Amino acid sequence: MAAKQKDGIKAVNQDFSKYDQVDKKQTYKLVEDKTTDEFDEAYQIRTCDMRKFFEGGEAGKKAFAQELGEALESIGFAILTGHGVDPNLYVEGQRKTAQIFEETTYEERMVYKAERHGSVNQGYFPMKTTTIIHPDLVEGWVFCRRAFNLDEDSDYKELDFWPAGNYESFFRQIIQSHEGLVLPIMQSILTYLGCDPHLYDEKLTGTNFGFRLNYYPPITHQDDASGAGRMLGHEDVDLFTILPAQEVEGLQVLNNENGKWIRLNAPPGSIILNTGDYMQRITNDRLPSTTHRVSKPGTKQLFTKPRISLPMAIYIWEDEILEVLPSLENPKYAPISAVKFHTNITSKYYGDDYAKEVKE
């Protein structure tokens, strides 16, 4: 692992292209390279107001679908406002995330070390172990549906998933708020692509998701000198990711049209939405799975401040089939099970054995 991580600092994405399950022609270094990377200072990620969907009647839904679809088709990212989620939840979510990582010991966190359940590695990821490619300067903790008592299971035990501190009941509020956005987002995308807007309603009710708490600790002189980034350049595997705007800068998005990076700093309380590999597959490449990464802040004064993010990845369940939407002509991709698709891709992060349990 150490050798791969060392190489990952200088690697390009195409070194791992054999794992990709959708067409990705772009080539980029996994870590910011100040000597060669160029930045697109003019491009503005589009802001889409969800109040049109919720309050504008049928005309409003069509207008929102058009705006969101155009944004995602052009770059795979959009900024959502008017979504109705209490921004105070995000402020408190960042505080509680810091508390989890700063007020528990490493040994206490390692009790929950990540293991695969279904398609997704769930649990705690120590520093520099998010992938075997690159030593990301982040600790993470992934909670999927089973970690929340959403179905009021009598056998559920909070301490099986969470450290002491009554965290589940708080973060469940964010999960449930985001679940209320899943169908409006997917229905709008399907409307834009000329599909039945309710085609995925059943698949995305009782959503299969991965909710990740990312804690990027203050950057040490040693980590800065190593050349490692906070999170390597990658594309999400999912249908789409719901990401509350962060306080500390660092998110960068690759503009495939010109090969330049865009620094994405969304307004407080807004949501950053991006499409992933599942979406690119079912939309026949119409909506791209866009490359992004988290780099160190541009000003070293921010090196002493932790960075926290709360992304929620939306999937379909493992036994579902990913196939090109019926409204799209000349499908490029054959139907494939979600579990096979997902684990083939994520083997590049966890090792080739990760997909071996999947049957042909």
What do these coordinates show?
It is built from 9 helices and 16 strands. By secondary structure, the chain is of the alpha+beta class. The chain has a single domain, classed as Jelly Rolls. α3 (57-75) packs across α6 and α4 packs across α6. It is globular and about 50 Å long. The relative contact order is 0.18.
* Molecular shape: globular
Using DSSP, what is the number of strands? 16
Content-based structural category = alpha+beta
Q: What name does CATH use for the topology?
A: Jelly Rolls
How many structurally independent domains?
1
Largest sheet: 10 strands, mixed
Task: Please mark out the parts with pLDDT under 50 across 5 or more consecutive residues, or reply none.
Answer: none
Radius of gyration: 19 Å
What's the CATH C level? Mainly Beta
Helix content bin:
25-40%
Query: Distance between the terminal alpha carbons, to the nearest Å?
Result: 28 Å
Overall residue-averaged pLDDT value: 94
Helices and strands, with pairings:
Elements: H1 2-8, E1 47-49, H2 51-55, H3 57-75, E2 77-81, H4 87-102, H5 106-110, E3 115-117, E4 120-125, E5 139-144, H6 167-192, E6 208-216, H7 221-226, E7 231-234, E8 240-244, E9 251-255, E10 260-263, E11 271-275, H8 277-282, E12 292-294, E13 307-309, E14 312-315, E15 321-322, E16 336-337, H9 338-350
Parallel strand pairs: 1-2
Antiparallel strand pairs: 2-11, 3-4, 4-5, 5-6, 6-13, 6-14, 7-12, 8-11, 8-14, 9-10, 9-12, 15-16
Helix pairs in contact: 3-6, 4-6
